[in-house]
Amino acid sequence: MGGARSQVNKPHKTRFASKSSRHVHRTASLSAKGKIGKSEGGHRAAVKGARAARIQKSKSIRDQKRAALLKEKRFSVSAPRVVVLFGLSSYANVNSVKKDLLQLLSGDDGQPTSNTIASSAYRLRTTVLEAPYGDLVACMEMAKVADLMAFVVSANSLYDNGSDGLIDPTGAQCLSILRTIGLSSTCVLIRDLPQDLKSKSEAKKVGISSLSSEMPEDCKYYAADTKEELHKFMWLFKEQHLTCPHWRSQRPYIISNEVCIEPDNSGTCTLVLSGYLRAHNLSPNQLVHVTGAGDFQLSKVDILKDPFPLNERRGHNLMESEENMNQICQTLTPDPSAQEPLLVENTPDPLAGEQTWPTEAEMAEADASNKERKVKRRKLPRGTSDYQAAWIVDGTDSEEGDSDIESEEGNGMVLDDELENYNDPEKDEDAISHFTGKFNEEETGADTEMEDDEVMTREQIEAEIKKIKDTNAEDEEFPDEVDTPLDVPAKKRFAKYRGLKSFRTSPWDPKETLPPEYARIFAFDNFSRTQKHVFKTMHELDEGSTTTCAIVGSFVRIHVKNVPIDVASRVCHASKAIPVVTSGLLQHESKMSVLHFSVKKNDLYDAPIKSKEAFIFNVGFRQFMARPLFSSDNINSDKHKLERFLHPGRFSVASVYAPICFPALPLVVLKKRDNEMPAVAATGSLKNVDPDRIILKRIILTGYPQRVSKLKATVKFMFHNPDDVRWFKPVDVWTKHGRHGRIKEPVGTHGYMKCVFNSGIQQHDTVCMSLYKRVFPRWPERLYDTAL
Questions:
Q1: Which residues, listed in sequence order, are joined to residue 152 by a DSSP beta bridge?
Q2: Where is the Bms1-type G domain (predicted)?
Q3: CB neighbours of 683 closer than 8 A, spacing ≥ 6?
Q4: How many CA atoms lie within 13 A of 90 on its CB side?
Q5: For 192-231, what is each residue's pLDDT tens digit?
Q6: How much is the pTM?
Q7: How far apart are CA 742 and CA 697, in angstroms?
Q8: Nearest alpha carbon to residue 767 among 783, 785, 788, 751
Q9: Tell me: the pLDDT tens digits for 545-562?
């Protein structure tokens, strides 16, 4: 009875539960009825085909990359991998790590004779270099060529109470500079760990946790006390896929193994450098840059037998290695018709600016404009005859109509924008019609006060100006305020300045009033297109034949000609401490132009950085002297405001005269100090090359209201004679409290003036006038400083 009475629930309909199953069922039923000819869903088949196509495409790309990598490993001759050891604190003994690695690679306990070793046990060629602790310039130069940056730390610094930890301030500064240049593949070698396994594991964990915030995410950490630990590091290093900064892979470069001098009879010499060619092929027609020396041409390129072959036999010794370095396999000489000229500056034509006789069309146009000017009617008093009108000089009265004539006839400062709308009498009458009559009634009282002030002596005027300046202290928001001189007319002192209706939208011709230095530089019609063409030419050179260029990975000896003897001797002396890097230049990179860098002041540099001060610029592999001009970076405008100092905590644009470089390149700005190592003043990167970038210097002339009445005020101490007031009348004025207005007319003989504003002005406000002029960088006295 109970079983018969039990409840039986309706089963779930799971046959067509999903949308796709219902769609398949519907299409199948319709096809069975003859309404659809296809047996399968068309949409589902299309999705299947697209997914299969994506899978096939990704598989083919993966196979191509794998084949290219295998081809590079099997058939190409790669240069030895460069491992640079950096000590992050004074506790780290980098020299002992270098000796242990070289002994491990050489396979014997003797003293290695070279920094480059071809290890048959690891099937790897490695160059081990040691960066001198505390020398930021040397560390920076070594980091530029490092394939693996191995940072060495000591675990003893974790237990020493007087230490700053695993990274001391010098190491932290060095690490920040290396980040600016661009880090290659990195690893950390931890020394002086405890012998006990548990304590050793704990100390390593503590070290990794304290270093992980300063290192890249893919950084590897190794214990490096014993030979077995170094052996594990080398095996992992052999299989590691190394990465390098993008800028370094754009140019060929050589790390010199040997540097020597071949004297010439002309007072110069040939600098001979030998080493492995890296990154790209090198043509003898290219220009090269020797770090710290400058740009030069090549006389020839010798391709030598590899002194460190990987398949080294047992009887191979140092004498045979030296014989291989002198055994020339091939010599490449430049083609005079195709060699890149060493052209640094443009030779200006002194007759290029000579005026020629005008053509008939230009003369006809001038006559037509003169006729139009004569037809223009002037406002004259009622009843004036033509004979009397000929004797009337424009702009001699203080009436509002005459002031408009002054602006039209060009007797005042000219604005870049059209002023007709602003000086339109009808619009002015509408704007100030409600107080014009009242203003004229108050002129008598204001003029009476002017007469009392005009009796003041020069010392009294200066004292009162100083008193007002003290009460209205300068603020960082208004850093461009200047005083109008008492003994020089303002229109003469500020003759190079002009007013702008709008800093963002007012036009400014970039070809107007250029300095003489612009005749010595080069410019591009389309810089981006030129850059693409230059890099395309470099890739074509890599695919060229071995008879015209040296192949990447080969051991070469380059002969750099026409090097000054003193410069070459300094390079040879510097090569004993750190390897000298010689990099190939791309097309146009020896020519001077105007380069713009995005820079930020170094937090550890306390001295102020002033515009046009001499600095050492490290841009990629290149190093040169420059006098930067700092400016803001306005995205929405083609004009940029000059900054007199590089302020900390924000980015600015530094513009310099320098050899052309193609971005992206890192920048490190060094300041040379007497009897000290150069200090890192700023860091950044190359922005672009553009001589037409407009940098404007702004000055603010200030005045102070003496008598205020609603929208109008009598302003003093902005100018000191009425001629200056008339000259600067077309320029708008503004106040620090946000009011905008214009000059109406001068009052008296000491430069007082009446101004009208768009809103009520207060007695304690300050009236300002902004003037602008275009500024340019300063040409460096010398381009290269070899004293470093």
A1: 87, 189
A2: 79-243
A3: 176, 177, 180, 599, 600, 602, 666, 667, 668, 669
A4: 8
A5: 888 888 888 998 999 899 898 889 888 999 999 899 999 9
A6: 0.74
A7: 22
A8: 751
A9: 778 889 988 999 999 999
